[in-house]
Specification:
The chain is an alpha/beta fold. The chain is built from 18 helices and 13 strands.
């Protein structure tokens, strides 16, 4: 199997952790009750819905039929109905007459009945859910409709950020990427988002003529061919979009300026590492909200604790259905420095401690000055255990067993549908 074939297989079979972003589609919902409309509108708070245009209307099935007599239909129609089975099927016959080809339909009903579910599926309804239902379940169902097995493959994005400047998120990001590349032999792209002071080029002893600035400033014309040309190769399976580190100009980005670059990168590389600088702006907040996984690196002191707690609390509110961030406590046991114990630190910020790395100015200083990774200069260094653990998590290898299911059978999971109520 070639590297390209291996990468494609990884992209098409994403492992555990992280949820796929739903493509750019339009959704119109027709609700009978205000509570249902409010719940539907809350779907937009899920990061997977960031590209979706969603509107809600009153009127249920009859409202939809009247609307589409004179208007084109969206990619997905969501209908709330309290009708009985025979009435639902008769109304769907009328709705089908005014729907465009390719439109999907999701029905939210109040009847918990396997027979009704089967009749609706036979009719061509994409999904039937019984109310009341959580917003997350509806987003899951939308994902199942529009992210099929033959959908465009997409890699995982992992954002690394320091709780405080100098905590070491870039160093940990680069070494974790190296661990994925060398241990799993999976292609990784590191995007250095600190255009003024980024260190990805220095840490890998690279000084390419192109980098992330070229991708950003050509965003409107950027495609996968151009992106491949701009990327530089640091080692086997390790690719870089380095920072320009040019202070002749300032870099004031809007919320979604990095979005196109990250999306294109995910379409060609199984794992994209986002090396985010310690600043706070609209684009940083948006990038963190959209990432599949997030690694927060903090030193064990009070300022880091406060900042880490603020970041973690925000991420939990922005990403309520996602797994919590990965917390790494770095530079532990600096001589004569009063410190917060790593586990106490994790308890205070209400996030599980994923790993801790002891302070070692000698090894990390030599690696930085040589443009090498810790595994290159000290294969048995204890920090490599943490980098390997992070690499396994962000590549999806840690909980791999949890995503394996039975093979050979393709029977609709009726009980799963009915239990969604």
């Amino acid at each position: 199997m070639t590297i390209d074939e291996k990468n494609k297989e990884i992209l098409q079979n994403p492992l555990s952790g992280g949820a796929r972003i739903i493509p750019r589609i339009t959704i119109q919902a027709f609700c009978e009750h205000s509570q249902t409309a409010q719940m539907i509108e809350s779907l937009t708070s899920d990061r997977r819905m960031s590209r979706v245009a969603l509107t809600t209307h009153n009127g249920g099935l009859e409202g939809a039929i009247e609307t589409y007599k004179s208007s084109p239909t969206p990619n997905l129609i969501i209908i709330e109905t309290s009708l009985m089975m025979e009435e639902i099927l008769a109304s769907l016959e009328r709705l089908a007459e005014v729907c465009d080809t390719g439109t999907h339909l999701m029905v939210l009903g109040h009847i918990n009945d396997v027979v009704l579910y089967r009749e609706l599926k036979n009719f061509g309804v994409s999904e039937y859910l019984v109310l009341p239902v959580r917003a997350q379940i509806i987003v899951d169902a939308i994902s199942e409709i529009f992210i099929a097995g033959d959908a465009e493959p997409i890699g995982r994005s992992v954002a690394f950020i320091s709780a405080k400047g100098g905590a070491g998120s870039s160093t940990i990001a680069h070494n974790s990427a190296w661990a994925v590349a060398k241990n799993i032999m999976q292609d990784v792209l590191i995007i250095d988002m600190d255009l003024a002071f980024g260190t990805a080029g220095l840490n890998f002893n690279q000084d390419p003529s192109t980098g992330i600035a070229d991708a950003l400033f050509a965003s409107e014309t950027l495609d996968d061919v151009m992106l491949d040309r701009i990327m530089s190769k640091a080692a086997n399976h390790v690719n870089l979009l380095t920072a320009s580190c040019n202070l002749d100009q300032t870099y004031d980005f809007t919320e979604r300026d990095f979005e196109n670059v990250v999306e294109l990168s995910q379409q060609s590389v199984p794992l994209v590492i986002l090396d985010i600088p310690h600043i706070w702006s609209a684009w940083v907040k948006y990038t963190l909200a959209m990432a599949d996984d997030i690694v927060i690196v903090a030193e064990p002191d009070l300022a880091n604790l406060r900042n880490a707690k603020n970041i973690i609390d925000l991420l939990k509110s922005l990403r309520p259905s996602e797994q919590e961030p990965i917390l790494i406590v770095n530079k532990v046991a600096i001589p004569k420095r009063p410190e917060i114990a790593p586990q106490e630190f994790a308890n205070s910020v209400e996030c599980k401690l994923f790993g801790e790395i002891a302070f070692d100015s000698s090894a990390f200083g030599v690696a930085a000055n040589n443009g090498q990774m810790i595994a290159e200069i000290a294969r048995n260094h204890k920090a490599n255990e943490v980098f390997n653990k992070i690499g396994n998590r962000i590549s999806g290898r840690l909980n791999n067993e949890s995503v394996k299911g039975p093979s050979g059978l393709n029977i609709p999971n009726i009980m799963k549908i009915l239990k969604r109520a």
